[in-house]
Structure formats: C-alpha cells, structure tokens
Amino acid sequence: MRLENVHKIGGKYCLMVDGQILWRDKSLERITLIQNIYNQYGTKALQILKTGTSREQKRKVQQLPRNIYRNKHGNYVIQKQIHGKKKYYGSYHSLKEAIQVKNQLEEEGWKRPIKSDTSRRGLPRYVYRLNKGYILIKDNESYGVFKNLEDALAEKALLIDHNWDYDYIDLV
Fold it and tell me: What is the pLDDT of residues 50-65, one digit of tens each?
C-alpha cells in the first residue's frame, strides 16, 4: 500500500499531488481507494467522481468501447440508443465476447437485438428451455412445463386461441 501522497490535515486524510489537495476524506480506506483510482486513471477520474458519474463518463474512465458498459454484476452489456429509444443487445461475461458481438452488430447496421440468454436462442416467443424440457412463460406467469418442444407449441397454440385464459379452456 503506497501512501506517500496521503497526509492527515485537521482530522481528515488528504490525497495531495504537487502541493494541491485532490481529495479529502475521514476514512483512510476510502482515501487509499481514491489514490488507487488516481494512480490508474489520473485526475480526470477524480473529477468525474467529484461531479457525479454519468454512464458515458464511467465508460470513458473504464476505457470500454462505445456502447459497451459494465453492469453492477460485472458483466459487459451492449446497449445503443436508436431514435431516442435504448436498445438492449445482451449481457456478456467477457469483454472479448461483448466486443465480438458489438462488431457483428455494427456490420449488420444494428438491425436485430441479440440476446445472450441461451435458454431462448432459436425458440418461439414465450417458449424457454428448461433443464430437460420446455416451459411456457408470458408476462412472468408460467403456463406449464413440457418434455418436448412439440407439446409446448401445441399448448401455446391452444392458449393463444383462448386468449391465454386457462379458466375458459377448462369450460370448453
């Protein structure tokens, strides 16, 4: 732990560079964290921390490519604003994977959202893969678990014909 720029002045710890106080805090832990940020990213990062952090500013500090952000879980998210609406293109565990998908999207002109959720890939709407079967979900409500895709699709067709109302289906 390098604390050569940290001094205690008036009951607070101060991070000083070239005789100027860059940051003051009561906690030595926070000052050490701020010093690490300063050592890694420079003065601009401290200015962003002081003035508040927009997503775009965070992206610049973390040196991520445009339209790729880190979420609170540490995953890399691809998002783009198109015609005033934010489009979500998936969440990825590695930056390399996110960059590959982003490059593919740029080549295609950002035409289609790509979801990283593998349980939905290639399946019809409302049908999800579940361990050794399939499940129907609409508006966070489950409509059954099925051993094969054909049964799930047959049930989905029946539900659509009856406006997703099981009570009506029971009466018929």
Answer: 665 566 656 555 678 8
